[in-house]
Amino acid sequence: MPFDLGSISNFKPTLESIPPPNVSYQQQELAGIPVNIHPLNPFAFILRAALVYPEKVALAHPDVKYPAFYTYSVWAQRIQNLAYALIQAGIQPGDRVAVIAPNSPLIADAHFGVLAARAILTAINTRLTPSEVAYILQHSGSKIILVDREYAHLVQGSQIPVIISHDSGRPEDPYELFLSNGRKFSAEKGWAGLEVEPDENAGAILCYTSGTTGRPKGVLTTLRGSYLAAIANAVEGQINRDSTYLWIVPMFHAAGWTYPWASVFACATQLTIRSVDYALIWKHFLHSGVTHYCGAPTVQIGIVNSPAAGPLSNPVSAIVAGAAPTAHLISQLEQKGITPVHVYGLTYVETYGPFTRCYDQPFWKSLPLEQRAKLMARQGQIFATAQNVRVVYPPKNENDQELVDVPKDGQTIGEIITRGNIVMKEYFRDPETTRKAFRGGYFSSGDLAVMHPDGVLQIMDRSKDIIISGGENASSLAIEQELASHPHVLEVTVVARPHVKWGERPMAFVILRQEHASQWTGKHREFGEELKRHGRKRLPGFACPEWIEVVEELPKTSTGKILKTELRKRVAKL
Amino acid sequence: MPFDLGSISNFKPTLESIPPPNVSYQQQELAGIPVNIHPLNPFAFILRAALVYPEKVALAHPDVKYPAFYTYSVWAQRIQNLAYALIQAGIQPGDRVAVIAPNSPLIADAHFGVLAARAILTAINTRLTPSEVAYILQHSGSKIILVDREYAHLVQGSQIPVIISHDSGRPEDPYELFLSNGRKFSAEKGWAGLEVEPDENAGAILCYTSGTTGRPKGVLTTLRGSYLAAIANAVEGQINRDSTYLWIVPMFHAAGWTYPWASVFACATQLTIRSVDYALIWKHFLHSGVTHYCGAPTVQIGIVNSPAAGPLSNPVSAIVAGAAPTAHLISQLEQKGITPVHVYGLTYVETYGPFTRCYDQPFWKSLPLEQRAKLMARQGQIFATAQNVRVVYPPKNENDQELVDVPKDGQTIGEIITRGNIVMKEYFRDPETTRKAFRGGYFSSGDLAVMHPDGVLQIMDRSKDIIISGGENASSLAIEQELASHPHVLEVTVVARPHVKWGERPMAFVILRQEHASQWTGKHREFGEELKRHGRKRLPGFACPEWIEVVEELPKTSTGKILKTELRKRVAKL
């Protein structure tokens, strides 16, 4: 047992979390489905893990006032309780259940319990503003909200039922009461009282974008896709029953890149910490048998530079995505005994988290670091259960459905497109955007890349206007919209500027309205502060501009489009 | 490179096996399939492996006059050539392609090339008689036969086209000519000229039983099932890109337990040897980096007792199925550095090879060998992609569709049933037998077992009349039929008798016809020899009775059914 035994033995799950003595992991049979078909569903992984490793620690949440440790059999019972509690609360197949929580048992439970109730999980970014949350709740049509106490203010005054978790695992916790009532409601029918979802293409996860084109879009995935993507992630990460996965990437981000399911598919142990705390991370690296974690380079930089870092006795795999790891970072990770695995996926859940991997070739081992890092910085090739990924020329016009691959020359930039089982179902309630995203029978990623002669793709530009700030994706367009609402602003544009701590932060270039320009003459710095205040009221922290520059004009194309590339060059020199 | 480099560098694949310089691994697009669906098909694994690891040795066949070594890119090209050659020969989607070959590139190619042509692979047991082969060819409606020269006599005079392989990989080999013509026929359209099979529930493999109830039955599996079962086998075996899988189980047996695909899914290397030769096996264990192999206990016994055995420097996993490994065998394997993994599946391809595994629990490590072996002898619990397995009371009558689980007491014997994605589609052209096998919406295995309190199943009796002789399944009923055709035999029954070398061998009990009895008085031994000669003409070697006893009467039930259980008790005392 890798964790502090004192805490584990001190912990007692609620009475209703204990499965009955003769628990059966068999669900209600489906009528009319052939003997040789079972609809794919990642929820099924928990039934098998509980059957095979009932006594194994499935979920550990050690670093809170009331630590909790759930074995697979107990966790499965809690998931069953959650499913019944949701059904008791009126949740019907296909309904959306919202969850707002940091990495903790609540959101881990939800990844299984919501699916067990045949509902769709809408996991909401905890860093959004109340109005953004309200929009998502309204657009998703969520019927109930499960929220961690820390984020309860985000849904204050909600018109739909709210279940608050104090993250305590204690019987008096409202979330625990909810689960316990679910157990009572089940009347001990157990798994046999829950229906299998007959349609493997039914919705699984509905995650919202940060709203790159204004309003957030809801990305809807399927059960089949989630099942196959989770298996791919377990296989690519080589996660198995001896693995311990440490949660650093938020589970609300693209369903935690499918790792809530991948870990259970592999019968591994999951360890949740509520926030990215490098001292805690190293405590677990050194003392809890952690073997795997995921994180963007920003987080990886924080990890390797932490004063808590120490020599690792067991190998740890770092799944890196969000941006390419630099040679310096690769070297730092390897020096610490951490093996980086570079993967790529869409920012939201359009590709269920990662779907390509930079597969290292045997001969790379003998290359000097700089050269190896150059190869490792590439986004790679498709996962085992993905179909294919191409880099094609952008459309000539709005109706252009023809997909022409760019030459495999490592130079010609095109757009990354993909199709197959690891592609989302649709943008929820937005057929027009879905249609546009599915040009030519492929999903258009919006990411620009080249294809190397060895069939490996490399991103040249993130979707052009995204700013990766502290691991969060800030849309420059969305920031511009908010800043432009200041009455003195005539025109504003925002680009990413490198930042030591956050990786990138937004920098805004502003042209003042003529009528207000004189007012700020010689006081551009003061105006910047004023505009920052304006932004902070409207934007999540990570999207607030760190720097603001007042300018006379902005570089533009002949058709009047702002040349962000020019601004980025300017910013690079700052 | 784990193999003898001399052989590899001496080997040159045929010109037509070399892919074109700008090979694309993209198949013809499917119209009308949603962007987020790609029909599951294990054939797809080769396209990805060739893309990601083009230069890696995919298939090595070192121990023949003309050794062959194919990298993933070359092997993929050969598979493409085979698909085109089959299409050129008139093979249409859904047609059956017969293959008769020992473990060698031919049958490995067929597991991919036949599917790439959207056809169904009928792999035929090389140990059958010509008339048995003829029956299978006729019943399957095979349109073409790919046969290894050693077994060409089995299809002599065939009415359908026969392609003979000399297993040489040389341009003048008829099989190579067939492949090369396929390449020419493709007109370099490459993968884009081959259609994706749009129906993932289309047939993949058609394997024939040994004919337990007289005539062999054709077991038809699907592409979806093959895909998911192969992934499960790769995951359960922990096969990955660093693995080398040695072929000992014949690939014609239940599609090699899905390992032709599982190995490619994992991007591993496969090593084929034409027969079970323990010296060769140890040569590869010691010098070729073998990490995995599969085999029944009979084979495992041969391996551990081989004079060629030596200390292993790298860990090797032995996937054991067909019967439970004994404590003695487990200890012998472990002493040699081989880790046994005990799995269970149906004899033919009804469950795509193994679908349960005896999952060892951490605390087993501290148990004494005898106790651990007792736990390890159990057949276990379902694979990751299987749905569920139950042990139920046998039907009360022919129309009884009710499935009632036996208590989890480790004592009550019932029948193993299963359903889900790792279950065959049907018995080919035999809806009545299919209907009977799918009682109550589950597949009835015919294997009798108990369910232990920890949810682990254990087989108590193999389907009652099967004799496992040298790893082959001999049907006592089929043997009885052939022996009964001797004019002097009145009645005959056959049961398994333990055999030091073969595990089991058939023993026949015969009642002579009255008119002939006097002729053999005092010469029962001579009659035995006569009847063995009779059998050898009609039966494969493994099914020929090793012992024959002439008796006056046979033990029978009140309804006249022979009590084989009584005979088995008698045999056990011999």
Strand segment tally of chain A: 25
- Number of helical segments with 4 or more residues of chain A: 18
List low-pLDDT spans of chain A.
none
Amount of beta strand of chain A? 15-25%
First-last Cα distance of chain A: 51 Å
Q: Which word captures the global form of chain A? A: globular
Helix content range of the residues of chain A, please? 25-40%
Largest sheet composition of chain A: 9 strands, mixed
Identify the strand order in the major beta sheet of chain A.
2-1-10-9-11-12-13-14-15
Q: Mean pLDDT across all residues of chain A, rounded?
A: 92
Using the CA coordinates, give the radius of gyration of chain A: 24 Å
The two chains with the largest interface, and their residue counts, are: A-B, 50 and 50 residues
SS content category of chain A = alpha/beta
Oligomeric state of this protein: homodimer
Q: Overview of this structure, please?
A:
The structure is a homodimer of 574-residue chains. Chain A starts with a helix and ends with a helix. The longest helix of chain A is centred in the N-terminal third of the chain and has 17 residues, at 72-88. The first copy, chain A, is an alpha/beta fold and 574 residues long. Chain A has a 9-stranded mixed beta sheet with strand order 2-1-10-9-11-12-13-14-15, with helices on both faces. In chain A, strands 4-3-5-6 form a 4-stranded parallel beta sheet, with helices on one face. In chain A, 30% of the residues lie in helices and 22% in strands. In chain A, strand 13 and strand 14 form a beta hairpin. In chain A, helix 2 runs antiparallel to helix 3 and helix 3 (72-88) packs across helix 6.
